[in-house]
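@channel sequence for tomorrow's demo:
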Amino acid sequence: MPSGSAPSSRLNDLMHPVVAGLISVIVNYGGTFILVFQAAKVAGLSPELTASWVWSVSIGVGVTGLVLSWRYREPIITAWSTPAAAFLVTALATTPYAEAVGAYIVSATAFVALGLSGWFERVIRLIPPGIASWLLAGILLQFGIGAFGGASVDPLLVGLLVLAYLALKRCSPRYAVVGILVLGLVFLLLQGRVDLSGLRLQFAAPV
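structure tokens (generated this afternoon):
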């Protein structure tokens, strides 16, 4: 093998997992934080408190993910639950924010204790997969149905994104979600329907 091909091969080997990881982060991060912003709106949180929420989750996920992945030599992510974020959208309508924070701290403590005890896997095995799937579907169903409700507001945009998703899912499934995200943003920018005048970059801090 020519010596010049070795760096190129190593670069290709590196790029594939980097791109896959980046796409995974964009999809999971963006999708979950849409729910976080909705939950913050339902709870009536201020922009500062919402930014603090996003900051703490982002820093927590980043630091613990790096440390645990480096320690165990496999991808590990923590403090991340899309169903839990979806549940907050409905729960915070009737539950005070402080009580929700306390409930999450108690839940996290219980999960850590359960994991350290070695009983977590045994408990999970006692729950039939069908029940876990039904619980998840029950939480996320309203968001799936609500997505089609936007067709009455902007049928052109919704139709364009649905067709683009189907095409990308067939040709390049890995980039389907990111593709429609970029396409939707470009479409709205070309129509002048995105107002970025109030957007500014600044450091967030815990509140």
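heads up for whoever presents: The chain has a mean pLDDT of 81.
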